[in-house]
Amino acid sequence: MMERMQENKLLRQIMRGRLSRRQMLRRAAALGVSASAMSALLAACAREEATPAASPTVAAPGGVTPAASPTAAPAETPAGTAELGPATFQYEEPQNKGGTLIEGSFADAKTLNPILVSDTASGAVSDLIFNSVIRVDPQTTEPVGDLAEGWEISDDGLVYTFTLRDGVTFHDGEPFTADDVKFTYDLFMNEATGSPRTAEMTERIKTVEVVDERTVRFTLNFPVAPFLVEQMVYGIVPQHVLQDVDPAQLAQDPFSTGQKGRTIGTGPFMFEEWVKDDHITLVKNPNYWEGEPNLDQYIWKVVPDATVVAQQLKTGEIDYGDIEPSQLEDMRLQPNVNIYKYDTFDFTFYAYQLDPEKTTIFQEKEVRQALLYALDRQAMIDAIRFGIGRVAVGTMPVMSWAYNPDAIQNKYEYDPERAKQLLDQAGWTPGPDGIRQKNGQRLAFTIYTNAGNKIREQYVAVFQEQWRQIGVECTPQTEEWNAFLDRITGTKDFEMFLVGFSWGVDPDQSTMWKCSAYEGGFNMNKYCNPEVDQLLDEALRTTDQEQRKELYTQMQNILMEDLPSAILDFPQALSVVNKRVHNLFPNDVDDRYNAHQWWVES
């Protein structure tokens, strides 16, 4: 109890912007975190990343690029205590067949249909049921074949011809063919489905043609440098199951909501059961084309919050899950787990509602800019993330080869006086209650985030306090994950929201910033700037990496001036795996690529 009181006192001081970096170290010691440990975390936060993500290799025009698979290294004896570091991808020959692996999360899936997936939980489960044409190698970030065994690219970069694997079957025994690939992409490009990827797919893909049952040809509207790692990495659904379903009813169909024998793919696990807000159970696919999985069963277990995830990782009720930075020191004391800390393509951001029909409060960029200047993001990362993350400069994550912080003009370092000046200039003056007003409208709004995510809940509490210091009234509101997800991606009924997001391995960010991505993308706040659209399009059409980097830098500088959304931080992930689990390698690119090789000790 006393530790919790001290922790709350620390947070209140951060909220008020009163705690220095040196004081942070002193307070950390009072909370039981050694100064050396905290200094190490802060140093890790500040250091430059050793190796940026590699650019996908594109096949030579007219040449065939064979499918590849990660090379397994000999296994080493597991350490006797929990370790902290990235996965080493050291494969171990299975010593046991059978058993169950339980992954824990406080978020349930929204759908099992890869056409409709827009959240982490849905993606995590559906990735075990379905295969894609292409996967991204988690060690190199290059495209490798999944359902494709090879591909050719035309000289002009407009035509991609994929040769599909022979002998692959769906879970019901029906053969997988090129017709299923065409059918899947036709659904992606059908606006009636409500897929979040429709806008991007239809903009880039002109036609999908079946050449023969093992060959499918994609013709693009224009050259797309990241086509393989952006458009070809989504699960393929069975035509024979869904061909008679009205695309407008796809989300409600039992295939999407989970029905044994109907929710079928070609992946290593088959759907068994979904009890909402409790668990999803999958069983092994004995006829999986890469080989029969070692596990009998996989369970996605839903628990109330991140605290329960950590507790059940310690007790062994959960085998795999992510923890929050505040839980790290305690978890390192547990003898039954391994801890993996690794860089990600993730970021935390809040979005301003820019649709004037919903609210006019954020129409002036001075208001948007002032709010970001008023947040002490470094102090938030130090206190709430325990230094495990980095203040965002621009929109590109540190793992990206397009990360270019020195060239970003507006960095929005903590400056509450600058925030007040901007609001004054825009005509927002303090009212009788201290809250700024203009033309009879108070500078007051609600910010939504998802319940159970303690970091985001603490972030919005800091927002409330630090924005009050400049005369802004913010009311935090938490919401159950699926209701929250529907609010920000469906009804878009919000003034502001805070959430996490993850880019792909390529720096193309069209899905969030393009005007067309408001319907059928992740431009959730109706931002539109034709100059940004032009830069994004130009960057897609060139394969020269340095030229693309410069274009993305120009794009970021416009975004940082307009500030339609405020990217706060680039966090690292903390994943915990029970030591009885083998061959599971947490990483931010694809931790499911070898799910058939996972095994557990009996």
Q: Can you walk me through this structure?
A:
The structure is a single chain. This protein is an alpha+beta fold and 602 residues long. The chain has two domains: 2-49 and 344-571, Dipeptide-binding Protein, Domain 3 (Dipeptide-binding Protein, domain 3), CATH 3.10.105; 72-340 and 575-600, Periplasmic binding protein-like II (D-Maltodextrin-Binding Protein, domain 2). Helix content is 29%, strand content 21%. It has 19 helices and 26 strands. It has a six-stranded mixed beta sheet. Helix 1 (2-15) packs across helix 15 and helix 12 packs antiparallel against helix 14 (416-425).
Low-confidence stretches: 1-80
- Provide the residue-averaged pLDDT: 87
Radius of gyration: 24 Å
User: Main sheet, how many strands, which sense, barrel?
Assistant: 6 strands, mixed
How many structural domains? 2
What is the tally of helical segments? Answer: 19
What's the topology here?
Blueprint: H1 2-15, H2 21-30, H3 35-46, E1 64-66, E2 84-85, E3 100-105, H4 120-129, E4 134-136, E5 143-145, E6 148-153, E7 159-164, H5 178-188, H6 198-204, E8 205-212, E9 215-220, H7 227-231, H8 239-242, H9 254-257, E10 269-275, E11 279-284, E12 297-302, H10 306-315, E13 320-322, H11 328-331, E14 337-342, E15 346-352, H12 365-373, H13 377-384, E16 389-391, H14 416-425, E17 429-430, E18 436-438, E19 441-442, E20 444-450, H15 454-468, E21 473-479, H16 481-491, E22 496-502, H17 510-513, H18 530-540, H19 545-562, E23 565-571, E24 573-578, E25 581-582, E26 599-600
Parallel strand pairs: 2-14, 3-12, 20-21, 20-22
Antiparallel strand pairs: 1-6, 4-5, 6-7, 7-9, 8-9, 10-11, 11-12, 13-24, 14-24, 15-22, 15-23, 16-23, 17-18, 18-19, 25-26
Region (Disordered): 55-82
GO molecular function: peptide transmembrane transporter activity
Keywords: Signal, Transport
